[in-house]
């Protein structure tokens, strides 16, 4: 029969500062460049987009940054999140591994995204911002930010990729319930949207287009700001609450991870679980392996290049130094919408370039298979994104078994799958396709960057 | 800015026994009768349906019944559940009330249902049962039992009302993910199903028909048993873990409820939150009011009669002494599928008959309105069922404000609404209808019982 063990932290034991890995990195990431001048951007360039406190966090050098009381307070709706020993899954895998997972699915929006949505809403609130714009693909980020802005009385307008807007009505309803306005993108509300619709009235939209629309709307309204759910330094910073809690909880469990695993879209959930343990690699000489897991269909970390590229498709955002497949790369339509992004955050990219973290890619069919086995042995249904991390846990367990070496594995259960059950339905009816990306296609997209002088 | 306070229990502080209200009731409920002989049924009548330990619990007289370690263990996947002070909602209501809610939405299935699904699976497992059958309407119970049986290695076959099977694919996928077989009912697998389909090949099904199919299949297979998600004494017993935890948590919060509120379908979530406080009314002379909240469209407690009736539509189950609208009553299709049941559990019915608890009915539009206001001020989206409890909280707060008397209110947040967002979508697009049930229709259904000599 199944054995269960959760490791607790009381609210009083919740960490009161985020960990800023910029302070410890041997090589700092290259700065973002202005898309026009190609010179490093300064705070004044970002001021129309973000509140000053977030701009400061983007370049902060202190090792720890205090979590404001107003943020800690909202965190307590669901934090500290549980750390669970996966006895059931361990038994199923029958390998010499201890597996722990941090359950971020307990947040009201069902994922780790509120960890940064709440401080982003908070700092905007403190600086008198009345309205925020953002984009969302499948809707995880949009719903998390709706949850957060509502609690601070800030209006939110979400540009949701049109194909998802039509296919994922549940996420849209969540955003409406939390008071946000949701607009299918491309829309007629912005120049960017109108120009796309002129060329193609039936455009299904893309994350790149939605970013352009959200940024444009924020820039044109002096009372509004823009918010991003991954990639940027301040977003990764906020997510470190995950690993900092896990560090304390593992101490209670009298364990320490040999391997830390997170799925990878823009980098925020992976950074959240792994950076606090990387901190100990830096300062205490620990040798924990950190593995970022991306889909084979969007393999920027394993097959992309580390170079400057745009954050969006249209080319409106600053240039970021990052692992990229080229901003025109259009990832196949896998179910893990949150992992369909052409680039990676600068910090994570630099760490990977320096060999301080690892990256692996898995196909979605093996991810779903791992996810279903996890659900059946642990009782919790993972989001399609999260199943990628679980697939890598399976591989590491198999390796440990083969080598006969005991391992302790920690992974981030970044979200539950209850709003994504249609994806499981596809899996059970044999409709899950594995997409491969050809070397030629990647080369071509990267060559296009050469031509732009990037 | 929003203030948040959660009240913790560690796993060690989790109650280790359920509270059996049968021990304390001044008047015991009348026994269930055999549908044929109309004599009280004995354990041997129930043996084809339930494992012996559950049959014993159905008539147990001890005040506390120990929770087996194997059940406590699985409970720890999500229990103890948090008790939260609803500061945000309190501020919104601007009334002299302290509001606490017990968040049962944190379970892997998203509702309170696993509290009984787990012990039911456990006792079946201990008695060597290889397969369980059950029915489900909207899918809350079916998914909770799938979660539980999978962990004990028991096969599960769920008869899901056909109209829901087609309209609620997410719940079906959850059951599949947890390894259950889901059959749209009426089906060709049972005589009951075939007889219905012969008369009406396009029958949309009903909970009554699904119960008949599940019972028939269990009875015909000596290795199989049947499971029910509400109404029965043992189900209510298992749910008391909710109120027992809340009792301890309120002690930490230095508060005690004047009013305890739960929504009402068959009675299990209401019983779970209220019985442990009723215990203190019995033994310590406390005067807490317990309010069961049903939909206006299915008003068995407020407008039904206390008498013997069948648990299902077809008339296969034992006769239960309960508040009923008549087993042929077909509730209008409100979104709170879990509250669409013609009868109430015998214990709750007796308590209501004796004036020891109260009942109120609310319309679904006011329920959704309360639910949306709650989601926007507390950050958590309630299930359509749960919004009925919240609507009553609003009424009690308004009353306290009018009377100028301070009140402490505890309610059961029985489940989250993330798998029911289509209902919110209907609400926002103005498609929510309020159904009234005429006195004549109720009278007619109850007259039919007279004719059957019930």
Give a short synopsis of this structure.
Two copies of one chain form a homodimer. Helices cover 43% and strands 17% of the residues of chain A. The first copy, chain A, has 19 helices and 15 strands.
Helical content of chain A (DSSP H or I, runs of 4+): 40-55%
Greatest chain-chain contact: A-B, 51 and 51 residues
Average pLDDT taken over every residue of chain A: 95
Number of helices of chain A: 19
Q: Roughly how many Å apart are the termini of chain A?
A: 58 Å
Strand order of the largest sheet of chain A: 1-4-5-15-10-11-14
Notes on the protein architecture:
The structure is a homodimer of 454-residue chains. Chain A is built from 19 helices and 15 strands. In chain A, helix 5 (114-126) crosses helix 6 (140-151). By secondary structure, chain A is of the alpha/beta class. Chain A has a domain at 6-13 and 68-110 and 234-451: 3-Layer(aba) Sandwich (Rossmann fold), CATH 3.40.50. The radius of gyration of chain A is 21 Å and the shape is globular. The mean pLDDT of chain A is 95. Chain A has a seven-stranded mixed sheet with strand order 1-4-5-15-10-11-14, sandwiched between helices. Chain A has a four-stranded parallel sheet with strand order 8-7-6-9, sandwiched between helices. A two-stranded antiparallel ribbon of chain A has the order 2-3. Chain A has helices at residues 43-46, 52-59, 69-75, 87-93, 114-126, 140-151, 162-167, 169-177, 191-199, 207-220, 233-239, 241-252, 268-284, 300-303, 346-353, 364-378, 384-403, 421-428, 439-451; strands at 5-7, 17-19, 64-66, 83-85, 97-103, 131-136, 155-161, 181-185, 224-226, 259-263, 289-295, 305-310, 319-324, 358-362, 407-413. The termini of chain A are far apart. Chains A and B meet through helix 3, helix 6, helix 8, helix 16 and helix 18 of A and helix 3, helix 6, helix 8, helix 16 and helix 18 of B.
